[in-house]
Amino acid sequence: MGQVQFISPRIGGDWSILCRSHQPISLLKMARIFNVPLPVHCQEGICGTCAVQVTPQRGTRYGHPSPFEKQTLHAIGKVSCIDEDDLAQWKGPRWRLACQCMVETSDQFFVAF
Ligand code: FES
After folding, report:
1. Per residue in 2-24, pLDDT tens?
2. How far apart are CA 33 and CA 28, in angstroms?
3. What φ, ψ does residue 19 adopt, rounded to 5°?
């Protein structure tokens, strides 16, 4: 069972969600289902409004953002290089687009926005 903890220091919220879905689900869809007030606009990976900092827990891996997602993150200044692909090395939080970041059924993440 997946678990995602959304944390927003900016608006002072903390939402811990157990994912009972049997299929991968986007962070944005999960936030919507559980009324987490994640900023959102296009829902297509274009605007960057839903950028969040994701930190995997307990062996969960980051997953790989698509080239399209990387391009948007670069355009909004969240990653310095489109070809930046040091996912295996980096232990800290990484920027992802909530509308593009899929959560597998056993994943565990902290998500800050
Ligand atoms: S809502 Fe626009 S990129 Fe996710």
Report:
1. 789 999 998 899 999 987 778 88
2. 9
3. -95, 110
**Threshold 0.70, pTM exceeds:** yes
DSSP string, 4-30: EEEEETTTTEEEEEEE--SS-EEHHHH
Asked if 81 and 74 touch (Cβ cutoff 8 Å), the reply is yes
Pocket lining: 43 vs ligand 1, CB cutoff 6 Å: yes
Domain spans of the chain? 2-112
Q: Ligand 1: which of 68, 97, 102 to mutate, judged by most atoms within 8 Å of the beta carbon?
A: 97
| pLDDT above 90: residue 79 | no
Nearest atom (ligand 1) to Cα of 47: 2
Q: How far is the CA of 42 from the centre of ligand 1 (A)?
A: 5
Query: 2-112: CATH homologous superfamily?
Result: Beta-grasp domain (3.10.20.30)
